[in-house]
Amino acid sequence: MMTSSVLAGYLIVSGLLLSIGLIGFFVRRNLIVMFLCTELMFQGAAIAFVAIGRFLFDYSGQVMVIFILTVAAAEAALALALVVLLHRQRDTLDADVFGELQE
Amino acid sequence: MTMIVIGVTAAGWLIGLATGSLSTFADVSQGVFFFIFSLCGVASSIRLVTHDRPVYSALYFVLVVLSTAGLFLLLEAEFMAFALVIVYAGAILITYMFVLMLANQAVDSDQPHTQALYDRIPREPAAAVGVGFLLLCLISGTVIGGTSSLPTQGVQQSQWSTLEHLSKQFESSVMELDASFAWPPVDSPSGNKIRHDGIEAFIVSSDGTTLVLPTSLLPTNTQQVGWSLVNDFPVSLELAGVILLMAMFGAAILARRAIELGEQEKRNVLLGNNRDANPLDDSGDQS
Predict the structure, then answer these.
(1) pTM for this structure?
(2) Is the N-terminal amide bond of B184 cis, ω within 30° of 0?
(3) ipTM, interface predicted TM-score of the complex
């Protein structure tokens, strides 16, 4: 059985992963590491989904993780294709350099 | 020196917090594993953000995925745990590693161990930590405030609803188990045919006899998730397929431009190769 204080432990771990991912997204300047940080935020969301689903005995939480996996896979494919293209253009992975692309 | 003192104090406080909250777990070994997995996950996610070599960041992300899978196992989500390891650590992270290896260039040949400037110098660290801390405060405040108003035990009504949908198969297996059972079983007050008293699942027939169900009759985690996926979210399942298709199209279109350039070069190379392929003819012409 799962008590609500155990649920709170899982939710706080998921919140920690989410905020560390957010900090990493703001702090890092490497495009690939920034995308890794978004994946980290996905992990935090997945833990929260599964923990609440376990608490409520509802399997929708685990189904949501399947959709998170789908979105993460699609995002990784597209974002990494874009990153490779940008890297060929400017020969760097610095996110600040690509701010000048919009002229 | 002061940093060490602060670190030791923080570690001691954390250990005290952990041992204090271990008692909230019904099973102590489960609590120990929870702390191992969550500490491993949080520590490696911090290292992911702070490491200056992107390849190591990706490897630390594998550690985060593995500890998340461990937490999923503790939450009895076995299918999702293994799917996470296979899809995340096996497929998505390999893509990241490919791109990292592709885009990694030696910055300074004199110092091969230093990374590029954009990997070493953070952007707005103070503001980012402030925003992250605010987010964490919001989340933990909501979690602590919200979970204290929840009932101490989760509701258990819908746990076995899957099997009732597969009633034909269920009936034949119950008949195999006990041929004298008067089918159909009576609904519990909460509306489920299969009841659960916290230890084992059982069904009650119309003449009052109860039959304890063996665990082999109960649905596995994969069955439950699969049933929930196709029964509760059919439209979302189609949408997920469309998202994957669109991602495939997008990646193909993005990659096509690069290949067109390559095609031109390939043609040049082919022409050059044809000329080089007959060196005797060329030399014969020249002589």
Answers:
(1) 0.78
(2) yes
(3) 0.93
